[in-house]
Amino acid sequence: MTSEMSLKIKNITSMSMIFRVLLSLFAFNCFAVSESSKPHVVLVMADDQGWGQTGYRGHPHLKTPNINAMARNGLRFERFYAGSAVCSPTRASVLTGRNACRSGVPHHGYRIRLQEKFLPQAMKKMGYATGHFGKLHLSGIEGCGVPIMPGSTRFPSPEHLGFDTWLSSTNFFDIDPILSRNGKIEEFKGDSSEIIVAEALKFIAEQEKENRPSFSVIWYGSPHGPMEASSEDRAQFEHLNDSYLANHLGELVAMDRSIGQLRSGLRDLGIHENTLVWYNSDNGGLVKVDKHSVGDLRGYKNNLYEGGIRVPALIEWPANIPARISHMPASTMDIFPTLMALLGGDEETMLKPLDGESILGHLLGKSNERKQPIPFSHGGVTVLIDGSWKLMLNRNNEHELYHLEKDPQEKNNVQEEYPEVVDRLAKGITAFSQSLEASVSGFDYAENRLVSPDKKRIEWANVPEYMEYLKDYMGREDIINRIAQVKRKDKKQRKQNK
Asked: Fewer C-beta within 10 Å: the chain N or C terminus?
């Protein structure tokens, strides 16, 4: 990049940052809880649960009674968006309030930049004990989930992101998981969703006993592949004559049961009224596994049509959030600024530019409009959602415009009928893309550069330190199978390179 180009991008970024800071400051409203009434906060995220995979959405096979109960008693979003169409970028967006490309996570498995400012760090400053339970997938490690190795900034652990305690996996995990508790490997028996919820409840109970508010992140490994449900949970789907689908839906049954476990556990502790539980999925559904996974939406995981990014989302906070259905667009990028607005956090706890905004006023029933569009960038496609309008700049550098209120299935590209809307949103896409380029180059950071270059994602089976870390668990079938798979893949690649 030339110095002239760098200066141009920096000037654009500076103007954009000033504008967004003013917007964000305006969005922070006067409601902030007192020190003595801080709620416990629990963020829950499914792994590959599609928009249509709930009972309240009318799935033909799934009942999800516990998710349904949460939907009845809390705020149910009809237009909630994952930060990206795949898992790792969405996770990064939760922790930063920013499009994940800014933080070095353009796709699954990439290592998040430690120059970012993270939500758990901000929560600690607000007096919260912080815990992570489940899938991380921000360490730069690919492959089936294994316990997260401690200490290495090359492969960051939850500790590097601001978590006091963690029971975590690098990636997806199923029945009888193997996890890392603050770096020490532990084996468990049972369903993975129920295991991490039980551990999170122990953590919350410990903090409640000490009169300290807790911030818990529960990130499931379900219903992501390889999909392994218990015989009891998959039995009700055996009539479908598809064992892969039966296991997939069976994992959702267990995950739903763990939601009930969480809700009843909070009641047993006497804290459910003042606990904010925010539930959503990390990306769209797997239509090749479950054709009903995205309902009637277009698209699926790994693309930016609605089926790839619109996800189930619910919030329960009985003491303050009235039960209702929301039609306002919102995203995982809003979580960080919303919690800071709620807790009276300092704006400096969040790195600029933010792509999310506080929706606290909406949660409390005081506002139904966003102040800025929601931007997406994935796989060479850029999208801007502004109210009912959605403009896509596709891989052919062509615009697609959809009116989501009239056409949620995105059947009709109306860009020719509304050239003024295309022009307005296209300028927004251009500004976002230029800002994103500056972020990718490191201009957002105090150092005005990347302290260390972005790392390529790598299979743990190709990392000597990880193989040493896992040496006592090499007899596990999941580890044996993954190592064999990686060896076959590497052998094939070597042949192709000859």
From this structure: C
CATH code of the domain made up of 375-440? 3.30.1120.10
Q: What percent of the chain has pLDDT over 90?
A: 89
| Rounded Cα–Cα distance for residues 212 and 293 (Å) | 39
In the block, tokens 């259905």 appear at 325
- Interatomic CA distance for residues 420 and 132, integer angstroms: 46
Average pLDDT, the chain: 93
- 8 pLDDT exceeds 50? no
Domain edges within the chain: 3-372, 375-440, 458-497
Chain centroid offset of residue 457 CA:
18
CB 93 within 8 A of CB 357: no
Helix (H, G, I), strand (E, B) or coil at 77: strand
Contact 141, 156 (CB under 8 A): no
Report how far residue 35's alpha carbon sits from residue 378's, in angstroms, rounded to the nearest whole number.
40
Please report which confidence band the pLDDT of residue 20 belongs to, taking 50, 70 and 90 as the band edges: very low
Backbone angles phi, psi at 378, to 5 degrees: -160, 130
Q: Quick count: other Cβ atoms within 10 Å of Cβ 417?
A: 11
Residues 6+ apart with CB under 8 A from 170: 135, 136, 137, 139, 141, 143, 145, 146, 147, 148, 460
pLDDT tens-digit map of 408-442: 999 999 999 999 999 999 999 999 999 999 999 99
| Range 126-136 average pLDDT | 98
Total residue count of the chain as it appears in this document: 498
- State the fold for domain 3-372: Alkaline Phosphatase, subunit A (3.40.720)
Strand-pair category, 184-187 with 275-281: unpaired
478 contact partners, CB below 8 Å, separation of at least 6? 144, 178
Alpha-carbon gap, residue 411 to 429, rounded angstroms: 22
pLDDT (average), residues 230-256: 97
- 3-state secondary structure at position 16: helix
Q: What angle do CA 261, 264, 265 make, to 5 degrees?
A: 80
pLDDT at position 30, please? 54
Phi, psi of 205 (to 5 degrees): -60, -40
Q: What is the pLDDT of residues 64-91, one digit of tens each?
A: 999 999 999 999 999 999 999 999 999 9
